[in-house]
Structure formats: C-alpha cells, structure tokens
Design a protein that fits this description.
Layout: H1 3-19, E1 31-35, E2 41-46, H2 48-51, E3 58-59, E4 62-63, H3 69-82, H4 86-109, H5 119-124, H6 144-149, H7 164-182, H8 185-194, H9 196-206, H10 218-235, H11 246-253, H12 270-281, H13 303-306, E5 310-316, E6 325-330, E7 334-336, E8 339-341, E9 346-355, E10 360-370, E11 375-384, E12 393-394, E13 406-411
Antiparallel strand pairs: 1-2, 3-4, 5-6, 5-13, 6-9, 7-8, 9-10, 10-11, 10-12, 11-13
Helix pairs in contact: 3-10, 4-7, 4-11, 4-12, 7-8, 8-9, 8-10
Length: about 400
C-alpha cells in the first residue's frame, strides 16, 4: 500500500473515531450518568458543589462562565468523552508536541490567540490528510471552495490544505476576519464551524451575542467545549483529578504509553505519522515583513462572506439570452435574504440583462428549492462580482459558463 493509500485509510479511521466516541461511564463525584436513546452520554444530575472544584477556564482571554450549570456540565461532558480514548489522545498529544512549535509562530504573526492551536485537534486530530465525509481536507478541514478563496492551491498533483504551514496561514487570515466581523474569539470559533452567515442569523433572531447563551445546532453548540477539553487536558490536566480516570492521567503525564495490558486500536500507522511530521517540520515558516498588518493580507474572493452572500454552482444553462433560466446548486450552508439555506439547495436564476456598454451580465434569482424541506421559496438574489461585491459579472468571464461554474449571490 502506498503512502497516499495508507493516509486515506488511516485518516478515515481518525474521522470515524473522533466523531463517534464510545460511551464512557466513569464514577464521578457530583454526577449520575445515563445513556439516552441515541447512545450519547448525558449528565442529568449535576451537583452544584462540583462547580467549585473546577478551575477557572479561559478561551483566548475570555472567561468561560462555569458558574452557569449548563456551561460547567458541557465542559465536563467534553472532558469525559475525550478521556474515553486513551490511545487516540496520547497520539494526538505526541503530534501536538511536534506540530505546535510550527503552528504557534504563525498564529502569533497574525495576532490570533494561541488557544486556536487546539482547533485542528477537533477538526482533524492534527492529521494532514484527514478527509471528512463532505470533502473537507487537511489539518484545518477546509472545503475546496473555501480553500481556493483563501488562496490555497488544489489540483490533481497537490493540495495545499495538506500543507501545515500554508493551511495554518490561511486559517489565521480567516479567523482574523471572523473576529473583526464578530468582535469575539468564541464567536469566531463558532463561525469557523458553522459559517458566519448561519451564526449571524442566530444572533439576529435570538438577540444574543454570547456563545454560551446562544441556541445553536448540536455540533456548533459543543464545538468550543471540545476545543476547551483539549486545551485543559493538554495544559492543565492535574486540575481535573476528580474527573479524569487514573489511566488517562497516566497517558497525559508519562513520556511513554503506559502498558495497560489491553489491546487498543492504533488509529494511525506510525510510519504515516512520522512521514507527515517530517514534511511539516522541514517546511520553513516565512517571517513577517516589516510593517505588515493583518488588514494587508487579502482574503481572496471573500466578498460573499463580507456581504452576507452565498455560493452556487451552475448545473444547467439555456443560453446567453435575456429571459433564459439557469439552474444553480448551493455549494455550502448560509443565509439568503434572511432565510437559512443549505448545501445542495437549487437556485433558479434568470438572465436579466446583458449590458454591452459596461460588458456586464446580470443574473437575478427569483426562486430557491429547499432539498431538505421539499419546498420552493420566492427569493430576491443577484449574482455579484466576487472580488468587489458589486452586482453584475464581467462579460469576459462568461467564457467560463459551463457545468461547475461557481458564482457569488447576495440579497437585493
């Protein structure tokens, strides 16, 4: 089996493992644990006295409100779930020891808090060739369209999402944008997981800007707690002796894997990890130029994000004639004219005008079909130039009109 095939197999196991932890039932002071109908660990009984046993926790300098029972419960739940995977946690800790010295200077250069070095542990188990079921790839799990917008190259020969330095640089630029837009690193982390459009929609509807009090989808609602769990396990595990089982404490404190006498699944072949490590360690970090600022770093083709737009891929066109209907499929979740839309939804657009004087094509969307709801909605969207956010597309770009052509859309 070649290295690529080994990586594909190994990373498939990683993604499966971190998304479906087995249920673990430790005997914890202050909790009684049960399993719900979906086989997920829940903590229905919480002793308020246990909150006083938890140390203060911070994310990017923002205090985590552990005085709130629900917040404390979710953090402990995330810690418990992670401690169910002794070998996997040990391997990630070893990988972090080698990769964090590469990631940290890049975060610092972009003025992104160092706590975000734990984010790729949640996203990919710090594995460069990890692939999600939806097609996200790499340490930071970028989808192809997002990666290209951030300047990463993807072709048949190589994929820069698998390059630790380049993908980390791209992630930092995106995180800085999210923070500048949202004003909070906790919200920036949530938007990284769920998309800024969907998060802003929740903020607007709920009139709430604090992550810990927002009602979010299950994955995003747990996302920050999973990051915090890795941070606390790797940097402050001794403060959780009442929660972390003895065997996990040994994994976190010992230089080598303790011999438990039990067979444990090796999630990633060591030869694969070693090859990935050598590649990452041998890639130099480019120093920042004097006087550079984050705002000088471009976010390619990101007008859709800045202006609340969405992306859609052309699947059917009937010719460059006024009044013709073109069909697009959305490439990711987002917000369209105040409505949450999903990847795969169908956008029906009309060729509204072809302006020979300005060399611009104008496309207007009147209807969107929701694939999940099986319902057609009336919409008012217009195709925009992704580099400027202005309505209309330059006519020279029409040569690209074919199946797979992606356009940016925003509400009129």
């Amino acid at each position: 089996m070649n290295l690529s095939a080994s990586f594909a197999l190994a990373t498939g196991l990683v993604v499966a493992s971190i998304s479906s932890y087995p249920v673990y039932r430790p005997q914890l002071s202050g909790f009684s644990t049960v399993t719900d109908t979906r086989n997920e660990l829940v903590l229905p009984t919480f002793d308020p006295g246990l909150r006083s046993m938890l140390p203060p926790v911070y994310f990017c300098g923002e205090s985590v409100p552990l005085h709130e029972e629900a917040v404390a419960r979710r953090l402990v739940s995330a810690l418990v779930r992670n401690t169910a995977q002794n070998r996997a946690i040990y391997q990630m800790r070893q990988r972090a020891t080698r990769f964090f010295p590469i990631i940290e200077p890049i975060l610092a250069r972009h003025r992104v808090p160092l706590d975000f070095k734990y984010l790729p542990l949640v996203e990919s188990a710090l594995t460069g060739l990890a692939v999600s079921p939806k097609g996200a790839v790499g340490y930071w799990q970028f989808m192809p369209a997002t990666a290209r917008e951030l300047g990463l190259k993807i072709d048949g020969r190589f994929d820069e999402r698998q390059d630790l330095v380049k993908s980390t640089d791209a992630a930092c630029r995106y995180l800085r944008f999210l923070y500048n837009r949202l004003g909070s690193w906790t919200l920036a982390a949530a938007a990284y997981n769920n998309g800024i459009g969907a998060l802003l929609g929740n903020i607007r509807r709920q009139q709430q800007r604090d992550y810990y009090y927002l009602r979010l989808n299950a994955e995003t609602g747990k996302y920050l707690y999973r990051i915090l769990a890795f941070k606390e396990l790797f940097s402050n595990y001794k403060a959780y002796q009442a929660i972390i089982p003895d065997d996990m404490m040994a994994y976190l404190s010992e230089a080598s894997i303790p011999d438990t006498g039990e067979e444990e699944e090796v999630l990633i072949p060591e030869v694969v990890v070693d090859e990935a490590t050598r590649t990452a360690l041998n890639t130099p970090v480019q120093p920042a130029t004097a006087g550079s600022r984050d705002m000088d770093i471009p976010l390619p083709n990101a007008a859709d994000v800045f202006r609340g737009g969405i992306k859609a891929r052309l699947v059917e066109s009937t010719g460059l004639i006024r009044g013709q209907i073109w069909v697009f499929h959305l490439t990711r979740d987002g917000m369209a004219d105040g409505k949450e839309v999903e990847e795969g939804d169908v956008l029906y657009a009309v060729v509204e005008d072809i302006d020979a004087k300005t060399n611009r094509l104008y496309l207007r969307a009147d209807k969107l079909y929701s694939a999940s709801e099986k319902h057609t909605y009336n919409l008012a969207l217009s195709a925009v130039d992704a580099s400027t956010g202005r309505i209309g597309i330059k006519l020279p770009d029409v040569d690209q009109i074919k199946s797979g052509w992606i356009l940016t859309w925003k509400a009129l």
